Amino acid sequence: MTQVVSPIVVAKFGGTSVADFDAMSRSADVALNESHARLVVLSASAGITNLLVALSEGQEAPGRFVNLDAIRKIQYDIIDRLARPEVIREEIDRLLENITTLAEAASLATSPALTDELVSHGEMMSTLLFVEILRERGVEAQWFDVRKIMRTSDRFGKAEPDVAALAELAQQQLCPRLAESMVITQGFIGSEAKGRTTTLGRGGSDYTAALLGEALHASRVDIWTDVPGIYTTDPRIVPAARRIDKIAFEEAAEMATFGAKVLHPATLLPAVRSEIPVFVGSSKAPEAGGTLVCNRTEQPPLFRALALRRRQTLLTLHSLNMLHSRGFLAEVFSILARHNISVDLITTSEVSVALTLDTTGSTSTGDTLLTTALLTELSSLCRVEVEENLALIALIGNALSRACGVGKEVFGVLESFNIRMICYGASSHNLCFLVPGTEAEHVVRKLHGNLFE
Ligand code: ADP
Ligand code: ASP
Ligand code: MG
Questions:
Q1: Which residue, 331, 361, 327, 357, is CA-closest to 342?
Q2: 122 CB under 6 A from ligand 2?
Q3: Is 444 in the pocket of ligand 1 (CB under 6 A)?
Q4: How far away, in angstroms, is 375 Cα from ligand 2 center?
Q5: What sign does the CA torsion over 175, 176, 180, 185 have?
Q6: Structure pTM?
C-alpha cells in the first residue's frame, strides 16, 4: 500500500472558479495556500457544460457552429494568457476537434452515451489548462484521468459510482501519484464497465470530490465556489441571507437534497459515511471564511435554512378502487419504480394520492421523467392529473416535528399565497410545501424575512 503524506485535503473548484485565466489563477493560489490540498478536482469552465449539453441535443448548423465557437473562445482566452501557450494549444485543439466530430454525430442521432462522452470534454479541458497554469508557476502537478478509477453504472447522465472499486483503484493508481506531487483531476465524469464515459449528473463535481475524499481517507473536502459558504437561503434570491458558520451533516444534506445548489445533493453521502468534514468557501474571497459541515454543532436551531427547488411536477392520482382497498399504493409505486422514478413528496386521502416528481433535469442527458409510457401505465390504473411548473420550498431545521407553533410561524405570513401541498411530520429536519413556480421567490423572501431576519 502506498503511503500518502497525511493528512490529505481534497480541494474542488466549481465552474466559476475556473471560468477564465484570472479565476483559475486565484484558484491555484487557494490550492497552493493549503499545504495539504494534494488532490484538486475541477469542473468545466463556467458555461462550457451548458454549451456541450446543447450540442449533444443534436444541433443543426449554423447554431452548432456558434456553440462550438463559443467553447473555443472560452478556452482560447485562457490559453492566450499563458506564458507558453504553445505547450497546451495542440492538446486543447485535439479535444475541440473531438467535440466538433461528436457534435456532428449528435446532429444525426443523439444518445445518452454520446452526450456523456461529449459533455466530459469540459472537465478534460479545464484540468489540462489548470495543470499548465500550475506548471508555469514552477509547481509540480500531474494531470490524472479520473475515469481510470471512477467506475460507475451505465446509467448515462446520472451514473452511480462503485464505491468499493473506487477505493481499490484510488489506492493503486492515485496514491502513488499523490505521494509524488499535487494531482489535478476531473469532477463529474466516470466510466462504465465497457470503458464508455459516464457522468454523475449536473453539478456532480462536488460529489466526485467527496467520493475521492472518502476513497483517500481525506481529513477534509474543500468545496470552493462563488459564495463564501452555505447561507440561510440562496443569497441571490435573498441578499439579506446570513452565512451559517457551522452546520451538521444532516442539515446540510437536507438543504442540498431540497435544492440548495451550493452542494450537489449526493455530496454529503460519502462525507457522512466516512465522517469527513466538508468546508464551503469562495475562491474569489478565501479570506472571507466559509461554512464547515461536520458531525455535530452546538445547539442546533429550530429553523436553519430555506431551500427552493423549481420545476416540480405534481401528479394527482384518483381512484375509487382505493376506497377500503389494499395494494393500490403498492401498484402505483411499482409502476414508478419500473420507470426509474423516485418520488419526493407524497400526501394521500381516501381516494387520491398526490406526489411530486423532480424534473429539474439533474441528469446531463436532460431526460424527461414524465414519459407517455409512464402516463399510459398509470392511466390504466386510475385517473391522472398533472400540474407542472410548481416549486418546492423546504424549511430545514431541527426537531421541527416536536415543536409547537411551527405551522403558524410558517404559514401565518403566507396567507396571500396558494399553498398547493404540504408535507410535515415524516422528518424532524424539514417541512416542505409546493407553491406556483412564479411565486416561489416571493414566498422565500417573505418567509426568510419572518424566520431569519
Ligand atoms: P459551482 O459552479 O462552484 O459548483 P454552483 O453555482 O453550483 O457553484 O453553486 C453556487 C451557487 O449556489 C451560489 O452562487 C448560490 O446562488 C447558490 N445557492 C443556492 N442555495 C444556496 C445557499 N443556501 N447558500 C449558498 N449558496 C446557495
Ligand atoms: N460541469 C458539470 C456541470 O456543469 C459538473 C459540475 O460543474 O459540477 O454540471
Ligand atoms: Mg455546483
A1: 357
A2: yes
A3: no
A4: 31
A5: negative
A6: 0.94
pLDDT in tens, 221-239: 999 999 999 999 999 999 9
For 85-98, write each residue's pLDDT tens digit: 999 999 999 999 99
Q: Which fold has domain 304-451?
A: VC0802-like (3.30.2130)
411-416's contacts with Cβ under 8 Å and 24+ in sequence apart are 412/450, 413/446, 413/447, 413/449, 413/450, 414/443, 414/446, 414/447
Quick check: helix, strand or coil at residue 53?
helix
Summarize pLDDT for 355-413 with one digit per residue, the tens. Answer: 998 776 544 444 567 788 889 999 988 999 999 999 999 999 999 989 999 999 999 99
Ligand 2 pocket, 15 CB below 6 A?
yes
Cα–Cα distance between 121 and 247 in angstroms, integer? 35
| pLDDT greater than 90 at residue 33 | yes
Domain boundaries along the sequence of the chain: 9-226, 304-451
Cell, residue 170? 484510488
- CATH 3.40.1160.10 is held by the domain 9-226: yes
Q: 262 CA to middle of ligand 3, Å?
A: 6
- Name the residue with cell 490524472: 144
